Amino acid sequence: MQEGQANIRVAMVGCGAVARWHASTLYRIPGVEIVALVDPSQENLNAMVKWIPQLSNVPTFSGPEEMFKAIGPDAVEICTPHTLHHEHVVMALEHGAHVLCEKPLACSVEHAQDIKQRAQDTGKVVMVSYQRRLDPGYNYIKNVITSGEIGDIQTISVICCQAWKKGTTGTWRQNPELSGGGMLMDSGSHLADVLLWLTSQPVESVYATVDNCDTPVDINSTSTIKFTNGTQAQFTVNGNLPITWIEEVLIIGTEGILKYESDPQHPWRTGRITHSKDGNLIQPLRLQMYSSPDEAWIAAIRGEGENPSPPDAGVRVAELTNAIYESARTGQAVKISDISPVGQ
Length: 344
Fold this sequence. Notes:
Strand content: 15-25%
Number of strands: 15
Number of domains: 2
Shape: globular
Order of helices and strands: EHEHEHEHEHEHEHHHEEEEEEEHHEH
Helix content: 25-40%
Strand order of the largest sheet: 14-13-12-11-7-10-9-8-15
């Protein structure tokens, strides 16, 4: 923070578990003040204060409308159920606030595009919390791809697996009216973004199958994706995993290979990287550390860094996610141009 720079006053809209993770980072950033906690659940509000006792005197509200009437925050972190994201992001922008929104940015393509346009019109920083864009392992892979070292990407395989079905039973995440979808819309959103971010190419078409596993929402899905430059991708999401987490990405270029593998015993650490280089397979160590989504967002607001995951990332994920659902529903391949009213 530069000397003489005013504090950034942040409101937390949604105070569930993921919001507590965000707030625990946010309140430690110099020059940042959490000025409001918003949640319809008193239990969640109490849990936030128990998690961070320093917030015990922060005003609490049951909804964002009354918060905006009482508090004029500079910025808002949105950690509410997925189908409420568009409403809450729009409300924040209308009140002149910057936004960090948990994934997905929006459940529909139209809502994601609306947010993108509003962010452009207001000049406010709107960031999607896709933390893998800040992960040292994924940044190593992204930098190697960008350098051209592995040539053109021929195929990419992305696997995202979690004990999601068991962990979300009885919660809003299995209520389509609040979640907008299942494992794909939730945890799978992160890896959908990884796929699109690493390839940096528009998607042409998608063919997918989905299994709800006797729940109201998708649990498992497998998608074959064709990009406009000819790159082929396989995107597998499994929400009925017997262990906690598996995450793997395999990229085969014309001149080399890159692979990312999470550690099932320590899934929240950066993964192991395998890189084919000069005819040998190497595993790079001492990877450069990157900031958290909260730190990157605050830096972007201050003009000290770029927005690592702007609204366009949310638009592209919404296009891919809805194409997967539509293909599974119809049993046919779906073109992105048929999903997106504006297109890529």
